[in-house]
């Protein structure tokens, strides 16, 4: 799933702008929620359905406002979104449901070689002929090292957040990052042209994500308060039980 996300997500940048790709990534909470509900990790409700519907409508509006849209790039990006959603859900199942006790570094130790192998096979048939025909290979070593370092830090942070929260939380926490990427790409890249409809649709999608975040915080607060009440009740009952046990007369040996 990780290799699928990298392949399809990076291929999308050949057809669509960075800003529009980030707008399409706003559908990630919808994909993770639906897959999580199918796997039994999330509870389906009317309120959650409405929140996910708001996010989807916002992305549709943002797509309608795109000046030069490429449906090939949209398909690539949505395929990467589905792959990322599946990866996050599987990681949550392995970490929380299946009792896998690997730390973040150990998890990356197993995932990274498998992802590299899965990417190496299509690279031979799809990317390598194009690179050979364009002339000698030229990889700036410093730029390549910084790219690898950023990828390592990103993956490590994802594993840490998922192990302590959930798969959907990692997507909600990336809202600010997505806004920064959209605005910076509009300033740095000449092919990125944001329209008022783009920003309006993306704002609607982000409002849906914020609504989900608020809903989840309330749910977590109620759960924690109920656990605290249960602990208090157990602490109040335990001294009485000990007194009753102490007052019982010892059994006589026959």
TrEMBL record:
Topology within the bilayer: Multi-pass membrane protein
Keywords: Membrane, Transmembrane, Transmembrane helix
InterPro entries per record: EmrE-like, Sugar_P_trans_dom, TPT_transporter
GO CC, one annotated term: membrane
Domain Sugar phosphate transporter: 8-213
Keyword Transmembrane: yes
Protein name: Probable sugar phosphate/phosphate translocator At3g14410 isoform X2
Gene that this sequence comes from: LOC103705588
């Amino acid at each position: 799933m990780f290799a699928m996300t990298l392949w399809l997500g990076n291929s999308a940048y050949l057809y669509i702008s960075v800003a529009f790709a980030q707008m399409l990534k706003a559908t990630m909470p919808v994909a993770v929620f639906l897959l999580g509900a199918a796997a039994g990790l999330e509870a389906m409700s009317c309120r959650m359905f409405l929140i996910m519907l708001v996010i989807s409508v916002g992305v549709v509006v943002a797509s309608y406002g795109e000046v030069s849209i490429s449906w090939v790039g949209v398909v690539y990006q949505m395929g990467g979104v589905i792959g990322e959603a599946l990866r996050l859900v599987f990681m949550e199942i392995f970490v929380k449901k299946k009792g896998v006790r690997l730390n973040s570094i150990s998890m990356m130790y197993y995932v990274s070689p498998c992802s590299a192998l899965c990417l190496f096979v299509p690279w031979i048939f799809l990317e390598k002929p194009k690179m050979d025909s364009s002339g000698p290979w030229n990889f700036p070593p410093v730029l390549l090292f910084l790219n690898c370092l950023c990828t390592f830090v990103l993956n490590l942070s994802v594993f840490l957040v998922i192990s302590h929260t959930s798969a959907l939380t990692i997507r909600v926490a990336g809202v600010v990052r997505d806004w920064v990427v959209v605005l910076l790409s509009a300033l740095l890249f000449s092919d990125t042209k944001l329209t008022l409809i783009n920003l309006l649709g993306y704002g609607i999608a982000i409002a849906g994500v914020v609504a989900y975040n608020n809903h989840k915080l309330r749910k977590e607060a109620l759960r924690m308060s109920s656990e605290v009440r249960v602990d208090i009740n157990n602490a109040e009952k335990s001294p009485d039980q000990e007194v009753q046990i102490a007052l019982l007369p010892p059994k006589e040996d026959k």
